[in-house]
Amino acid sequence: MIAVLMILALAVYLSFFFPLEPKPEKVEEKSPKYTAQMKKLWQVAQTSMRERKPFRAEKALLTILKFDEKNAAAYNRLGILYAKGQRYEEAVECFEIAQSLDNNPASIHNAGLIYLEIGEYEKAEMAFLQAIEAEGDVPARFMALAKTEEKLGNTKKAIEALENAYELDPSVSTLRQILAIYEASGDMEAATATTARIEDQIIKDNLAKRRRIQKNARAKAPAKTETMAKAKIQKKPAKIIKPHSGQKRI
Question: Which of the residues in the chain have pLDDT under 70?
């Protein structure tokens, strides 16, 4: 009975002090000075990363996060910076925070790359599968998964991942990776079939390249013809009008 009364009292309290429809949060407008300062910090971070000045870049990114602790892009860049400096644990932490803030598949994919680098293959596999589930039309996701599966000894899964990558972006390099796995596993029949696929893909690529060259040449031809025609018009001498035989010359 006492428990029921407590529940009723709580219900009354919530109805008065916490209405069912939450009040919309006020979006605080940033001052022009704040916006300009953040833009400057981003420029410093990006320039420092390009110029390979990690300490300056880190300071700028940490300053951004000090004022905007939910800035997923800053966490992602900081993770990349730490990864380049082989500070892998901090890099993974940054990527995971970035992914939790904006649910960006690129962040969890980057974390997977770090796990792959440090030999945490099971975690890498989980990260790549999660990234593929969120964004399954990026060949690089499947390529990374294939490398992970190969490290785990899952040959069949590695080939399956590479085939998915090839379906999204048919390339000779992907087929050569498939061929290498078949040769390493001793499956010469599949290796022979893959070699034939590579030869066919090379022919297709060369044909596509030839067509692009011809298309570009045709596109440039009319412009060149028009330019030559204009040049001829400009160089054409003015027509001299001769007087008639019966007309007197002055």
Answer: 1-29, 221-250
The angle subtended at Cα 116 by Cα 110 and Cα 117, nearest 5°, is 90
- Token pair, residue 11, equals 């219900």
DSSP assigned state of 137 = T
**Alpha carbon of 176 to those of 56, 167, 181, 196: distances in Å?**
41, 14, 9, 11
Per 3-state DSSP, the chain is made up of helix, strand and coil in percentages (nearest 5) of 75, 0, 25
Let me know: does 178 contact 159? Beta carbons within 8 Å. Answer: yes
Query: How far, in Å, CA of 151 to CA of 116, rounded?
Result: 9
Residue 154 near residue 125 (C-beta atoms within 8 A):
no
Q: What is the dihedral of CA 161, 165, 166, 168, to 10 degrees?
A: 140
Q: Shortest CA distance to 79 belongs to which of 62, 103, 66, 56? A: 62
Q: What tokens were used for 245?
A: 């035989």
Nearest residue to 176 via CA among 143, 206, 153: 143
Interatomic CA distance for residues 131 and 111, integer angstroms: 10
Fill in the DSSP letter of residue 22: P
* Closest C-alpha among 97, 148, 107 to residue 126: 148
For tokens 């420092």, name the residue.
48
Q: Which two tokens stand for residue 107?
A: 């962040």
Other CB atoms within a 10 A radius of the CB of residue 62 amount to 13
Tens-place pLDDT, residues 142-170: 999 999 999 999 999 999 999 999 999 99
